Structures are given as C-alpha cells and as structure tokens.
Amino acid sequence: MLNKLIEDADLYVKSLNETAVMVGYSIVYSSVIGLLLGVLLVVLRPGHLYANPVVYHILNTIINIIRSIPFIIIMVAIIPLTKWLVGTTIGVKGAIVPLVFYTAPYISRLMETALLEVDHGVIEAYQAMGASKRQIIIRVILREARPAVILGLAIATIGLVGASAMAGVMGAGGLGDVAIRFGYQRWEPDVMYTSVLLLVLIVQIVQSLGNWISKSLRK
C-alpha cells in the first residue's frame, strides 16, 4: 500500500491543489456575499437599524428558496450563467460559480445567527452616545460578532470541502474526482480510502484553525 501511495503521489498533490483552489476562491467570494446578506438580514428585520419588513421578507424568502436546492441541481441549473461568467462549465473554474451560488446563502444564515448574538443593549448604548448606524454596524455588531463569524466561516468551509468533492464527480477535478474515477470506477480501494482520509484531514485542520482563531478573538 505504501508503494502504491508513493506511486500516486503526483495524483494526490494535483487533486489537493485543485480542491484547495476550488475551496479557496469559493469561500472568499461566498464570504463576501454571505456576510453582506447576513448584515442585511439583521439590520432590515423589524425593530432593527434599517427596519424594512417588505424587503426583509423578500430577501429572506429568496435565500430560503436557494438554500433548499441540492448542490447537484444548482450545478446543472446555472450552467448558462457559469458559462457566461467564466467561459466554461467544467474543471475547477466551472465549479467555482455553482459552489459560490450554493454556499453564499448558507453563510448568510450563519452570519445572521452570529450577528444576532450581539447584545441589543450594547447597540442601544452606542445609539445613545450618538454613533451613526454605519458605525454601529461596523464597529459594534461586526466587531462583537467576530468569534462567532469565524466559527461560522469554518463550518461553511467544511461544507465547501464536501461540495467540492461532489463537484469532482461532475468533472471539476479535485479529491472527489480521484475517489470516483480511480477509486470507484477502476476499483482501487486504496485510492478511494486515501482520498477520503485527505478530505477528513482537511476538515480537521479547518475546524481546529477556526476554533483557535475564534478563541483568540474572544480573549
């Protein structure tokens, strides 16, 4: 088994790189979109800074609808959009668009939960001191919610790792592609188990890193 692992080292390195690129780009884009949506879900809700029930319910409904669609269906359904944005629907580039489309609404919910944990009394105190709504969002809500935001992003990244493996089945490359194409279709169990082990290690590293950063911010 060790000899086989050494022989396939280049394959694993290539697939790890593809997975890292997919997850890396997707989490950056998804985080920006998800954080923006999360902030909007909080400040637009009734009784908050920019309360607007109509816009809030529309945004809330759209996010719920997108979140209810399985990743495989999203990947197929937005093929024209993916083709228009990145020029291809296969490979690593072709996977990033559906991964972002799938993950951003999920992150928005995680961000919403994290931001709602901020004590409303603290917000009211800053309002009484004359802080603007923009200052409250940036310097109070986002700042106070940093530990929970980091944990949420760690969870989202782990979900992206799983989705990227699923994208590999659709021709995106990465560890998922290696596990299916070499491990399953060619019936090489060692390749499949090694790919799964690498995915597990990535998840453990991401979660541990997220826990450590979050704990540091709480101090």
Automatic annotation (TrEMBL):
Q: Which InterPro entries match?
A: AA_ABC_Transporter_Permease, MetI-like, MetI-like_sf
The entry's keywords:
Cell membrane, Membrane, Transmembrane, Transmembrane helix, Transport
Provide the ABC transmembrane type-1 domain boundaries: 16-210
Where would you find this protein in the cell? Cell membrane
Membrane-spanning segments = 20-44, 56-78, 84-104, 148-171, 191-213
- How does it sit in the bilayer? Multi-pass membrane protein
- Can the keyword Mitochondrion be found in this entry's annotation? no
Judging by the UniProt lineage, the source's domain of life is: Bacteria
One Pfam match, given by its short name, reads BPD_transp_1
Q: SUPFAM superfamilies, alphabetically?
A: MetI-like
Database matches in PANTHER family = ABC TRANSPORTER PERMEASE, TRANSPORTER, PERMEASE PROTEIN, PUTATIVE-RELATED
Q: Which family is this protein grouped under?
A: Belongs to the binding-protein-dependent transport system permease family.
This chain belongs to the protein called: ABC transporter permease subunit
Q: Whose protein is this, by species?
A: Paenibacillus anseongense
The upper taxonomy is:
Bacteria, Bacillati, Bacillota, Bacilli, Bacillales
